[in-house]
Amino acid sequence: MSARVDLLERSWADRPGFIGWVTTVDHKRVARRYIATALVFFVLAGVLALVMRTQLGMSENRLIGPDQYNQMFSMHGSAMMFLFAVPIMEAVAVYVVPLMVGTRNISFPRLNAFSYWIYLFGGVMIFIAFVLDIGPEAGWTGYVPLSSSDFSPGKRTDFWAQMITFTEVAALCVAVEIVATVMTMRAPGMTLSRIPLFVWSMLVTSFMVIFAMPAVMLASSFLITDRLVGTQFYNAAEGGDPLLWQHLFWFFGHPEVYIIFMPALGMISSIVETFSRRPIFAYTPMVMALVATGFLAFGLWVHHMFATGLPPMGNSFYTAASMMIAVPSGLQIFCWIATIATGRPRFAVPMLFVMGFFALFVLGGLTGVMLASVPLDLQVHDTYFVVAHFHYVLIGGAVFPLMGALYFWFPKMTGRMLGETLGRWQFWLFFIGFNVTFFPMHLLGLMGMPRRVYTYQAGLGWDLPNLVATLGSYLMAISVLVLVFNLWRSVRRGEPAPDDPWGAPDLLWATTSPPPSYNFERMPVVTGRHPLWVNADGDPRIDLPVLDGVRDDRREVLLSTPVDAIPVCRWALPDPSIWPLWSALALTVLFVWSIFDQWGVVWGAIPAAITFTIWFWPKRSDVSLRSDE
Amino acid sequence: MKRQMQSVGDVAGLDDHAFGSGTISWWGVTGFMLIEGMAFVLAIGTYYYLLHNEVQWPPSSDPPPLFWGTVFTVALVATEVPNFWIARMAKAQRLQPVRWGLTLMTVLGVGVLVLRAVEMDAMNVRWDRTAYGSIVWTLIALHTFHAITDVFDSGVLTVLSWTKRMSGRKFSDVSDNAMYWHFIVWSWVGLYVVIYWTPRWL
Fold first, then answer.
1. Using CA atoms, how far apart are residues A391 and A377, in angstroms rounded to an integer?
2. Closest-CA residue to A26 (of A9, A5, A38)
3. Residue A462 in contact with residue A449, Cβ under 8 Å?
4. What is the pTM of this model?
5. Is A522 in contact with A442 (CB distance < 8 Å)?
6. In whole angstroms, what is the distance from residue B37 CA to residue B31 CA?
7. Of residues A210, A498, A550, nearest to B11 (C-beta)
8. In chain B, what is the greatest distance between 2 CA atoms, to the nearest angstrom?
9. Which positions in chain A touch B143 (Cβ < 8 Å)?
10. Between the CA of residue A346 and those of A27, A278, A312, A350, A518, what are the distances in Å?
11. Do A545 and B22 touch (CB under 8 A)?
């Protein structure tokens, strides 16, 4: 081992054992636990779905009662959206983005660790509340007046509203980290027109998080203050307005769908480019499509409110806007198809999931166009047709690409390959199970079955489609078990992964599998859009230009200009610290305390201020050093 | 396949700090300003949304008393003079002016917070009376929370400047802290117009 590597190892090493585990600020370790935690929440929320499907498998079933059912569908939706979908997409980005842009850590490593802890505590809190029979009961959308004190007495909705606060704080921290990473830490030469499409998708997603999530934090804060300190935001009798909730919630909620979907688009681009063995077709229009989707996503929220009696002119505008967003999505799908058609595609497991995405997302998109038209929406509003639509969009549009990405990036994250045969079994079980589960729901919705009912009478013609859907959900559960088994087996004794098992074009694959704590021994330089390819046929490049001069004896990285990626300065990143954890604990105390007593916000702020101050107290990395000092 | 690394340059001569959009911390502060700015925008949107539910605005009370709100606003805008100055001193990395500037900004920050407390005391509506009261108090409370955060940050930086070695990175922090105070000041000017003048102009 060279002296340089030895020094780097020491500078970037975590402390050993448990202390190292709780103090680490390595983006890869934090991302891995973020992903694992999100998968656990996915499984828990999935189990809730199975119980609900079992309840609905036959008419007038008595497996669970209405109150439990309310809590279960509320928890299922809340956990899937706030504890699984958004966090796992961001978590994958926390792992992948710094490597793709060729740097050694994420921009704010301690904030990143803090974000994970606050997310974990928020998720654990809501599941503990659920187990104690104080889980949310007003749906993941928490509409007032259903969620107001009058109709949701006790603490159930307060826990839900604070869970929102936890997860939004975590998501916003990661969004800022990703923006700062992409804008300042790209390898020299990686101009805006050379950024990998996944990084572009995460940049747009992060800006969307920054502009969308304040809306739900405001909405849930108004809700909790209405419930706890007597504000009147949603009380029509005192000048408040229940529809204000829906506006604020959907101003967040619609972009939220794209916040989940946009990273998936980036994952697909990475997979399609690699497995087609040719550069992505029409890179610049693809970037423009991502940016356009990001903007348009903020102009659609009222299409969730067509049934609230808004002026027809306004409804027409939102119908048009909803139809318009199909254009950039369609453009990307055509570009991927063109890439595959003109490349030399290999249909390994990640590509299978992309193929599944094409089929399912197009179906979900078509029912989306149907729902965007007011007359049809009014007919099927709050029916299983809507449930079918958004599961096609969210599972087809985001979970399929995510699973593909898991197979694609797992070798880099663990140094092991995932089993290909098991992967194929998993894909087909999931694809078939998904369609068997959700396709009948279109028919159920058209037959008039409302969503969020715990049971239904026999003789309405709903029994058979419900039974089929329930059987399909068991197939999906088996598929997830196969995935868990595949992960477990590969981690234990999977085939060792080479540095670049797929022949991919981006810097992520220029380092070892798994990468060392410092990611890159020397800072890479980029001279084209595909740093690891020598030509448009995807032939591997055997050399990698690098820059010297970044210090090895502390956690230093190279910063570059936001547009042209010209080196600006060296920048030391912080060492491991326990204080992000203590800060997250202090903030958790504040959040939970405030559910029971408004003064918790004041008294809880004291330990929070102390822990945050110690966290930010000057550290070794804050001291300026010349390169030879 | 092991790729051959080829050195194409050396960056040892670069500084290990910078100011402005070339730094991570600038993007961090800017990111959080965007988040908080968006929250202000949406809260202001809520104010005007609720306004449409009433025939008279404010409902069942007079417009908020102008005097202390205006005194607070003038005082807050006046702090921009030393704030701009300290941002310049930080970029020039001049230790003594930065130390005294931070001290002054902390004292002024505490001063405007005291004025804020007086302004709140003079407010003529409770948050639990009407939705109007709720949103007015929310706007003021949101802004106060951010102001307290920045005054606290200035206080911590003041202590550091007198007790620890100040190098390039810390001067960069002072500059970012000044940028955040611009946000505190000018976001309030917008909120002041909304809270105090909307009821008078409409």
1. 17
2. A9
3. yes
4. 0.96
5. no
6. 10
7. A550
8. 77
9. none
10. 31, 12, 49, 10, 32
11. no
pLDDT one-digit tens code per residue, A239-274: 999 999 999 999 999 999 999 999 999 999 999 999
DSSP A336-377: HHHHHHHS-----HHHHHHHHHHHHHHHHHHHHHHHHSHHHH
Which of A107, A525, A570 has the CB atom closest to B14's CB atom?
A: A570
| SS3 assignment for A488-549 | HHHHHHCCECCCCCCCCCCHHHHCCCCCCCCCCCCEECCCCCCCCECCCCCCECCEEEEEEC
Two structure tokens written together for A396: 């087809």
Residues B8-65: tens digit of each pLDDT: 999 999 999 999 898 999 999 999 999 999 999 999 999 999 999 899 999 988 999 9
Rounded distance between C-alpha atoms, residue A476 and residue A403, angstroms: 13
Query: Distance between CA A89 and CA B96 in Å, rounded?
Result: 47
CB contact under 8 A, B3 and A544: yes
Which chain B residue lies closest to A555 (C-alpha atoms)? Answer: B16
Q: Enumerate the residues of chain B whose CB falls inside 8 A of the CB of residue A521.
A: 5
Determine contact: B55 vs chain A, CB below 8 A: no
Length in residues, chain A: 629
Contact by Cβ (8 Å): A235, A226 = yes
Count of residues making up chain B: 202
Q: Which pair of structure tokens corresponds to residue B190?
A: 């917008």
Q: Which residue of A has its CA nearest to B156?
A: A613
**Which chain A positions have a beta carbon within 8 Å of B176's beta carbon?**
none
Quote the tokens at residue A36.
């694992």
Unique residue bearing structure tokens 């405007």: B112
Phi/psi of residue B9, each to 5°?
Answer: 170, 175
Task: Determine whether the interchain pair A547/B7 forms a contact, defined as Cβ–Cβ distance below 8 Å.
Answer: yes
- d(Cα A460, Cα A448) in Å, to the nearest integer? 9
Please report which helix (H) or strand (E) contains residue A569, including its range: strand A567-572
| pLDDT for A43 beyond 60 | yes
Q: What is the pLDDT of residues A477-508, one digit of tens each?
A: 999 999 999 999 999 999 999 999 999 999 99
Q: How confident is the model at residue A419 (pLDDT cuts 50, 70, 90)?
A: very high
* Chain B residues close to A248, C-beta within 8 Å: 42, 46
Note whether B29 and A180 are within 8 A (CB). no
Query: Which of B50-86 are b and which e, b meaning 16 or more Cβ less than 10 Å from the residue's Cβ?
Result: bbebeeebbbebebbeeebbeebbeebeebeebbeeb
